[in-house]
Design goal:
This protein has a 5-stranded antiparallel beta sheet. It is built from 3 helices and 5 strands, in the order βαβββαβα. A hairpin with a 2-residue loop joins β3 (29-34) and β4 (37-40). The model has no long low-confidence stretch (mean pLDDT 79). With 105 residues, the chain is of the alpha+beta class.
């Protein structure tokens, strides 16, 4: 299945609305969101900042970004469990003695 692609301009709108994806891929590099900025390999340097590359002109607002799906999403792989009737009938001591006496005969 192919990942969803959007433009940098659309990505900036998602960031503004606090709906931005945590990981994106652009120009064969995977960027991870830290704070409100995207960095390569979690390195907080100017050279690894996506928005710095936009200001230098290496990336334009029309470039497409691939949204990398989040790994280990535990809720995605859970299957529905078929419920089994596990009702247990509880007996008091007198009823147990009665059942034991009737089964013994």
């Amino acid at each position: 299945m192919k990942n969803k692609t959007i433009t940098i301009y659309e990505l900036m709108g998602l960031i503004k609305d606090n709906k931005a994806p945590k990981k994106i891929k652009i120009h064969q590099e995977i960027y991870e969101m830290i704070g409100s900025r995207y960095y390569i390999n979690k390195e907080f340097t100017v050279d690894n900042d996506l928005f710095y590359k936009i200001t230098l002109g290496y990336v334009t607002l029309d470039d497409t970004v691939e949204i990398v799906p989040e790994e280990n999403d535990e809720w995605e792989d859970i299957e529905k469990i078929k419920l089994i009737d596990t009702s247990i009938e509880f007996y008091d001591d007198d009823k147990v003695r009665h059942l034991m006496n009737t089964n013994a005969k």
